[in-house]
Each structure stands twice: as C-alpha cells, then as structure tokens.
Amino acid sequence: MSVSMQSSFVGAIAVADLVKTTLGPRGMDKILVPIAAGPKNKHINVTNDGATILRSMHVDNPAAKILIDISKTQDEEVGDGTTTVAVLAGELLREGEKLIHMKLHPQVIINGWRMARDAAKAKLISIARDNSSNQQKFKEDLLNIAKTTLSSKLLTQDKQHFAELAVDAVQRLKGSTNLNYIQVIKKLGGSIKDSFLCDGLILEKEISTGCKRSLKNCRILASNTPMDYDKVKIYGTRVRVESLEKVHEVSEAEKMKMKEKVDRIVAYKPNVYINRQLIYDYPEQLLVEKGIMVIEHADFEGIERISAALGAEIVSTFDSPERSEEVLGTCDSIEEILIGEDKVLKFSGCKRNEACTIVLRGSSQHILDEAERSLHDALCVLVQTVKNKQVIYGGGNSELLMALACEKLAKTVKGKEALAIDAYAKALRQLPITIAQNAGFDANELIHDLEIELSTKEDAGINVDTGSVDSMSRLAITVHHYLYRNA
C-alpha cells in the first residue's frame, strides 16, 4: 500500500472515530473551542450534533475532507443522520483497508460493495412501513420519529413536549417542504420547558410611532419597495442647480412622487402596511394620518413568512387597487407582546396559517443554540417523512437486518467479491455495536442476542435504558427510512 493511500485511510478513520462516541441516545457531547480563541472569538459550542462537530473541524487530509462533505450533504438532504453516515463511511474504509492488505484490487472491492449496497437497500425497502393512508397512525409515526431523533439530543428530557411542537409545526406547512416558513426564535430566560409554538406568526419588529399598538380584523398589504423620497434613484445621476430654490424644487418634486405612491397604497384600503425595506418619516407620517398601522424593515424571511401565513401577495408596484382582495392578507388581530425582555408582534388568526413560530426559552445561550440544532434535526426529518411517507424501526434493527441480508448474499457469490460483501456487512454491524458501546453495555453479547431475536421478531432492537433486546414497536423507536436510503 502506498504512503498516500495509507494517509487517506488514517485521516478519514480518525475523523469517523472522533464523532463515533456521539452516536446514539447515550452519545457524549463535544466541547468545540475556536482555534483562534481571543477576546473577539470566545464562542464555545457544546454539542453532539455530527454536522456541527465536523463543520467546525479544520483538516488537511483529502479523504477526511470528503468524509466531512458526506456529512454536510446528509445534513442538507435529510437534516439528521450526519454522525451515522460519518461512522458508516469510516467503518467501510476500515474494512477496505483490511481488504487492500489482503491484496484485493480496489475495483473488486467496489464491485462487491455495490452488490452489498443493492442487497441492503432491497432489505430496507422491504421492511419499511407506510401508514400515510391512516391519518392517526401517520401522526403517531411522526411523533415517534421526532421523539427518537430527540433521544440523542439535549432535549431528550422533554422530548414529548418538543416532539409535539415539531409535529404541529410541520403539519402547519400543509405538505410544503420549505422549512423557512418555520421560524425559531431564541429568547434568554425561563426554562427549556417554557418553549412554545405560537398560535399564529411572530415578527421581531415594532410598530411605528403614532400607530395603534393593537388592531383587530386586519387587512394587510405586504410590499418590497423603496419608501425614501430624498434620494434620486438613478445610478450615476448628477443634478446641477443654480440656487437653493432649485434644490428645494427637486426636494418638493421627490416628496410629491412619494405622496402619489402613498395615495396608490391607500387605494388598496389596507389598515396595516408592512414593507420589507425602510420607511422614511414623511411617507410614514402620511400613512399614519390615514389610520394605517405601519411596520417597516420586515426583512426578506419575515416578509416571506407573512405572505405564507396571511395569504398576502408581496407587491412592489401599486397600480391595480381593483385586485385588493387578491393582494391583501388578513388576520384576526395584531398586537405587541413581551417575550422575555423583548417586544415582538404577534399575528393571530392568520388566513392561510402556512407558517408558524417556535419560541425557545433557556437559561443560557449554549442551551438555546444546542436546543435549536436539536429541534432543526427533528423538523428536517419530519419534513422528509411527510414527503416520503415510509418509516422503519430504530435501535439497531434496520442496520442489523441489512447486515444479515449482505451476509446472506456473500454466501451465494463466487470470487473475491464475497469478501467485500462480507466486509460491507461488518461495517453495517458497527452501527448497533457503537450504540451499545456508547451506552456502556457488552456490545458483542447484545448484538448476538439481537440477531437471535430478529429470526423470530422483526421489530427487535436495542433498549439502551435496560441494556437488553426489546420490542421497538412497543417502545415506539422509529426512524425515517430515507435516512439510510440517502446514506
């Protein structure tokens, strides 16, 4: 084996071993310290999220970088299982290194692994369940998946509460997979149990001065348009004047243009006007005089959520007031509320209600950051489940069943590919072994018992609370099957 190949194996396996101890419900946290720690860079993360750990690492080894990219791709595609894919890839490389030492050609190994992969996928599809036709059972599947995902996170002590929050939030999307519509707000103070899903939409802005602080039966016009009258909006324009009177004339002309724009806005007959950009004092004054509540600088994500929740069309021109019923969004009320020490705006009784806000409370910024990462994983997996429907059992059940399918295939294949298929099965076995080891149990004995149970019970898996083989259907340990299909 060449030195460069040996270096690639060592680097990638070292990265996999680093995150290996974080796998499973009893996985340990890592303290991530910035390399250039100083007075301006003091932020330290405490997390067991594989994607966060790997993203924070600085490596020069090419194979290790590819392993980190695999984890990032898993995080983007599925949202969870980042540690799993890193550990699986590391174990495959560990087994591949042994095969290289046995003088197997890399192409032979890859051919065997492709055959094993197909067998594992076929087994995975055969054991997947689809309860989407039964709404009640499918919601139970979603809750079980959320609780299983949160079992290895900071939120495990309150997983029932946060699983319900996550499921309710995803169901509000009504089939959409755009997680930007689920806003997560972090507010210091209180305990983690005080976190809640807002019945409506929250916008972290304030109502402009002179407006009512609350309003009922709101007709909302949302826009993305410049509302500043004191700038000539033509790039590179130069205006020459001979006197201050001419300057005044230019200023008055700009004001008149803005007044005409405000009159066109008023023609839509809204009682609330929300703009993505800043609103200067003069147009704000004109709108307030007309009795319109003004909210400025709602930002891109804020205005998109408002559109999704209120059914408002985001407009940039105001030439079709006859379309006001299609353009305007509605909600029952808008009011200023306090969360912690901050004022925010709450929109209640939204027209479409396809967006929502989860408010996280916690005693420190570290807890809030880790709670957000944990909840994000659960939300991503739930969105994928709503999209792809199928679920499988966790607790090492699916991994060992796939490994057994590969071992069965290896006994029917002639040639050196059989060795590669068997190596693939060993790599899959390392996932439940790692879960058992991280829980402090005798992994070899536990996996042997699990293999025996799987011959008669398809729902058998590892119970990390008791260190025994148990029924995953009874314990409601469920994961989304796309996690492994994508891996």
Task: Provide keyphrases for this structure.
single chain; 487 residues; alpha+beta; GROEL, domain 1; GROEL, domain 2; GroEL; 3 domains; six-stranded mixed sheet; three-stranded antiparallel sheet; elongated
Q: Can you offer a commentary on this structure?
A:
The protein has 487 residues and is α+β, with helices and mostly antiparallel strands. The protein folds into 3 domains: 3-130 and 392-486, Orthogonal Bundle (GROEL, domain 1); 135-200 and 360-388, 2-Layer Sandwich (GROEL, domain 2); 203-352, GroEL (3-Layer(bba) Sandwich), CATH 3.50.7.10. Helix content is 49%, strand content 16%. It contains 17 helices and 16 strands. The strands form 5 sheets. It has a 6-stranded mixed beta sheet, with helices on both faces. Helix 8 crosses helix 9 (281-289). The longest helix has 24 residues, at 365-388. It is elongated and about 90 Å long. The model has no long low-confidence stretch (mean pLDDT 85).
Q: Into which percentage range does the β-strand content fall?
A: 15-25%
Number of domains: 3
Oligomer: single chain
Cα distance, first to last residue? Answer: 28 Å
Over the alpha carbons, how many angstroms does the gyration radius reach?
28 Å
Strand arrangement, major sheet: 6-11-10-7-8-9
Total of DSSP H or I helical runs spanning 4+ residues: 17
Going by helix content, strand content and strand pairing, the class is alpha+beta
Overall pLDDT confidence: 85
Indicate the CATH class of the largest domain: Mainly Alpha
Instruction: Classify the fold: give the CATH topology of the largest domain.
Output: GROEL, domain 1
- Give me the count of strands: 16
Largest sheet: 6 strands, mixed
| Percent in helix | 40-55%
Quickly give the CATH architecture of the largest domain: Orthogonal Bundle
What is the CATH superfamily label of the largest domain?
Answer: GroEL-like equatorial domain
